[in-house]
Amino acid sequence: MGERLRFSVLGPVRAWRGEAEIELGPPQQRAVLAALLLAEGAQVLSSGLVDAVWGTETPATALGVLRTYVHRLRKALEPTGDVASSVIRSTGDGYQLRLSPDALDLVVFRDLLDQAEQARRAGDAESAAQHLRDGLGLWRGTALSGVQGAYAQTQRQRLGELRLSAEATRVTAELDLGFHAEAVVKLTGLVAEHPLDERFRELLMLALYRSGRQAEALTSYREAQTVLVDELGVDPGPAMQAMYQRILRADAGLLTLPTPAAPVPAGVPTSLPVEVPLPIPAQLPAKLPVFVGRAAELAEVARLPSDGTVVVSAIAGMAGVGKTTFAVHWARQVADRFPDGQLYLNLRGFDPAGLPVSPEHALRTLLESLSTDVRGLPQDVDALVGLYRTQLAGKRVLVLLDNARDAAQVRPLLPAAPGCLAIVTSRNRLAGLVAVDGAHPLNLDVLSVPEARELLARRLGPARVQAEPDAVAEIIARCAQLPLALAVTAARAAIRSAFPLSAIAAELSDSADRLDAFHDGDTAADVRAVFSWSYHALTPDAARLFRLLALHPGPDITLPAAASLAGLTLPHTRQLLSELIQGHLVDEPVPGRYASHDLLRAYATGLVDVTDPVQETQAARHRMLDHYLHTAHEAFALTTSRALIPLATRAEGVSAEGFAGNTAKATAWFGAELPVMLAVVEQAAAHRFDVHTWQLTWAMGHDLHWRGLWREQEAVHHTAMEAARRLGDPAAQAHVHYGLTLATGNTGRIAEAHAHAEKAVELFTASGDMEACAEAYLMVAWVGERRSDPEAALRASRRFLELLRAADARRTDRRRSRMAMATALNAVGWSHTLLGQHQQALDHCRQALTLQQELGDDINAAHTWDSIGHAHHHLGQYEQAVTAYRNALTLYQQSGGVPWMMAGSLKRLGDTSLTAGHLDDARAAWKEGLDILEGIGHADAGPLRDRLRRLDEPSGSPPSASA
Q1: Cβ contacts of residue 134 below 8 Å, gap of 6+?
Q2: Burial letters for 773-811: b for 16+ Cβ neighbours within 10 Å, e otherwise?
Q3: pLDDT of 419-467, one tens digit each?
Q4: Closest C-alpha to 332, from 366, 293, 301
């Protein structure tokens, strides 16, 4: 071939022959070369090259022009060569660029990243950092600069994200080596270039803190919070919030540099993602600046052992007595005894706007806090309890369960292992926990008069309190010695520092007189008077927001959601929330999320019922529902390739949250808002917002499926079906049937799933929505496989492909169209291999894989590799099958694939290993797959367990690989 060819895409698209640079021609010709280079030796279909060059504006002469570009590139790269020996080969309906492994800078870059990872795993941090510096040194500006079009832009974004990930990994390595000051300089520049990328801001906070600049680290967080809210309408993600909390409390653990990792044993695949140390949960709410009294109670709990269960309840069930404040104060005092983490969960036992948190939901939340993959969680509550207690075994963890309804809600959440402490707060005594589970009861009464006076003195200053003893006594009496009422009163008095306390007491008295008609002699009426007084001191806009927040189902609300609810701008809403926080009517327990005490929510609910016209409350609900619907719609678009439904224009004043094209942020939003979204759907249905009900369900259906929350998925879809039927909307009903297919099929009710899938096809066909109808045929194929009817699966998957091809010209989103086409090709290929038509299967699956690799669609490429492995196995090509299955598993792990799919690939990998005579490999694959299936309580665990048992039996023949 003469002199060696080299290529570059990490900057302008360039090529060299030896040391001489090659002229590559006009931008569209360079685009053809770029697409071939990025395929890294794989075939690229002519249709894919046409898309890469022209996108949606394809001229009639595109194929002819494409052949001209390929001819010119061959001549430019090898002036004396011929077509037969060219590096650009014609392969069927496409082309292939054959490269040596080190001829493309992108391949070299990835190799250096792999070497860095291997060095890190071997404990060689210096070599890891150097490999990363070498790799980043290959970049010469923006990837593919000078190449135009949607395809190039998509690849630029993908490669740019790869570069930024490498930058973050390099800085992390340098921080691990102790180069904190140098890292601050680099990170300051990276934050300026990428202000919305939280990775760099979080690392900058850590670097500043390790450099002894704690205040600057905290300021950096607040700057990030402002930027994210102003630009995207979102608050910092959980990782940055956790870093902020750790820096705020001067966590010494942040100053400890990691010890070098032990070398990885030989034989462990290094291409798979490496497990990183799991974050230690530190979820306790912020400690209040003022805590007084409770000396006897603190002395009592100090004498208790550091494990078991303590129930903090209130005498006579009174709310506002300070149970949570006491529990948090005590928990923070003993937190250092629980180095494996501190968990906090509000069980919403007495929430006026929502139902108590079910034990199942609570367990899932706690397990996620313990870094358990939510997609692998079992469906059965008993299995969840077992997994939760297994996760806590051998650890010292504190669990604070706030606002419990009854013992039945709490009992499944109690740790069983010694060394863990559960603190439970409730208005009820929870005598069952005391009698059956050995919990220690601790009952709180209102503050004594001296304690109440000390609370006011700590908040208002001793001189002011000592100057007016009679007024202070009146205030304490009007507040019924309740900490919540005293805190609200003190907050208002602190704002009005020029007012004498006698005036404050007089206003409280007047407020109580206004409520005399409601006074029944109980303490609640006194508290309501305090709330009324504080509420009437608010500005009109803040008072309106306080009332409207009662319409939100909770448990908490973000700034953009609150702004949408009120129909105000983000800055204005932030100011109003600050006013409510200052008045102690709203809290910010987690940065960016706002909540109120149950008593305050109940009070606000009463106000909105008598103050705001029905039309205004309906309009506010409409804005709130629009906020969640439009935000969820955007998140759905980023997390799946399914066709999108059209939405009505959002109401005026709605501030939908944006994700700037970031799939991880969209996924995190779904996770953070899951309890809110489930409650919002129920509220939409209750108030007959039927369109919102089914569309919100559609928007969250994929995420519920991805997380394995099939019971929740089914329940919310039944609510949606009732709404769709009230509307008399067949298309809406069809979408709900689609979701019910997944929910019932994944819980083993195949006959129901089949009926739902067929009904979805029928209704979509009648409505004329053939794009959605195509997706429904995919569901028919999926159910056909589970009904052991591969012929039906093949018919349905072929129909899926036919309808997509028919609709292809009308689709404007070429990327989503091509992703769907690849899914259909793989579905047809998989159905062929189920029927024993393995060569036909490979033909379809290879076409699918080419599209998925061009698109960077790793999760669907994993599905396709699995199909290819299955076909190779049945063709007797065991080495190729093993390679395909391992490719699938690598992609599943890298892209966070769902566990039951990984288990399926592991089962089939074991089948291939067994057939090839490698019993140890088969055992290892099946064991790993079984661990996954048992962990999620999947029905396939039993058959796989039987196969493993037969494999290990001392006599008899080993199990045969299944078809």
Answers
A1: 112
A2: bbbbbbbbbbbbbeeebbebbbbbbbbbbebbeebeeeb
A3: 889 999 887 778 778 877 788 888 888 888 999 999 899 888 889 999 9
A4: 301
